[in-house]
Amino acid sequence: MSTNKIVLIPGDGIGPEVTAAVKRILASAGAEIEWVEHHAGLTAIAQERGVLPQQTLDAIVEHRIALKGPCTTPVSEGFTSVNVQLRQKLDLYAAVRPVRNLSGVSTRFEGVDLVIVRENTEGLYSGIENEITSGVVTSLKVATEAACTRIADWAFDYAVRRNRRRVTVFHKANIMKLTDGLFLRCAQRVHDQKYKIIEHDHAIIDAGCMRLVQDPTQFDVLLLENLYGDVVSDLCAGLVGGLGVVPGANIGNEQAVFEAVHGSAPDIAGKGIANPLALLMSAVMMLNHMADAFHDEAYRRVAEAIKQAYDKALEDGQKTCDLGGGLDTDQFAQAVIDRLKG
User: Fold this and answer.
1) Of 129, 205, 263, 276, whose CB is crowded by the most CB atoms within 10 A?
2) Nearest CA to 112 among 20, 216, 204, 206?
3) How many Å from the N-terminal Cα to the C-terminal Cα in the chain?
4) Residue 11: C-alpha distances to residues 19, 45, 62, 263, 298 (Å)
5) Which domains does the chain show, CATH number per domain?
6) Backbone angles phi, psi at 297, to 5 degrees
7) Which residues have CB under 8 Å from 30's CB, separation 6+?
8) Strand bridging mode 94-100 / 247-251
């Protein structure tokens, strides 16, 4: 395995604790990574460098891949979200959220195995809002053929690479005929021109959400524009136990940032009880991405070993308090490491 430099953003609150645990597990698994640490969020503000320092962005551009713990953006203080800035400035147009049931984590559903692919750069999240007159504001929903086409191509290509069977587009084209209509037409065209090997269908989003909570196993890969993807990805996390048991990634053509999608939980920071699982799962996604980016299958083997180890730990009842167990952060990390060695 080649050694590669990866940017590490520990984050705020519980971030440094869970990133330390994940680094320990990756080292025990044999992942050859040289971590290049930079900061964002409250930690960067405390260093008087702004919420997302240019040095951090430059490092991600240079090394192409980052692992990010949860970062806090101060509310109502004029700061733009760390995540929004990363997506916009690095053109991380594909937000990817795999969602699956985990052994030992009891939920109302079984057999859930979904991937939510969210367009990450436009829609209502473009942030174009205007006050027309006192008490009247508008928000502009942006859809471009270029962005709709590239996210559709990414989703279908992902389905092929990961041996998925179907891509379903959630939309509201019956009402928003131009914006969502464009998103829907671009997905259809990309499928028909390049990916007929993959099944393709679509659902109006309100009906699709109803079907999701009735039986999520009927879906495979979901493709959504920005706002819908934000909502549905968290909804789907709730199907399998919440944001603490799902990974996340923001991927562009040049750079990729893998992150825990939960918050920084300042109320439990420093207590050593935070669950590192979500960030660990994101690190597994990162290792699989590194296998492709660096043409080194050794990273994929390490990723699979870690995945099997944390699955086995959960199956054996080795869980942190948030999942009904009694382990602290370090104890859960050790439980995973013990199963790597086994």
Assistant:
1) 276
2) 216
3) 21
4) 8, 12, 20, 10, 28
5) 1-97+243-342 (3.40.718.10), 108-113+120-240 (3.40.718.10)
6) -70, -10
7) 1, 302
8) antiparallel
Cα gap 146→155, rounded to integer Å:
14
Query: Cβ neighbours of residue 294 under 8 Å, at least 6 residues apart?
Result: 2, 4
Q: Are 65 and 251 in contact (CB under 8 A)?
A: no
> pTM for the full model?
0.93
| Residues sharing a CB contact under 8 Å with residue 264, sequence separation 6 or more, in sequence order | 11, 12, 13, 14, 15, 41, 69, 70, 71, 72
Contact present, 139 and 129 (Cβ < 8 Å): yes
Q: Which long-range contacts (CB under 8 A, 24 or more apart) does 316-321 make?
A: 316/104, 317/104, 319/104, 319/105, 320/273, 320/274, 320/275, 320/277, 321/273, 321/275
Residue position matching structure tokens 């005929």: 177
Radius of gyration over alpha carbons of the chain, in Å? Answer: 20
Instruction: Give the Cβ contact number of residue 298 at 10 Å.
Output: 16
Tens-digit pLDDT string for the chain (342 aa):
678 999 999 999 999 999 999 999 999 999 999 999 999 988 888 887 788 999 999 999 999 999 999 988 877 566 778 888 899 899 999 999 999 999 889 899 999 999 999 999 999 887 788 999 999 999 999 999 999 999 999 999 999 999 999 999 999 999 999 999 999 999 999 999 999 999 999 999 999 999 999 999 999 999 999 999 999 999 999 999 999 999 999 999 999 999 998 989 899 999 999 999 999 999 999 999 999 988 989 999 999 999 999 999 999 999 999 999 999 999 999 999 999 976
Q: Rounded to the nearest 10 degrees, how much is the dihedral formed by the CA atoms of 213, 214, 215, 216?
A: -10
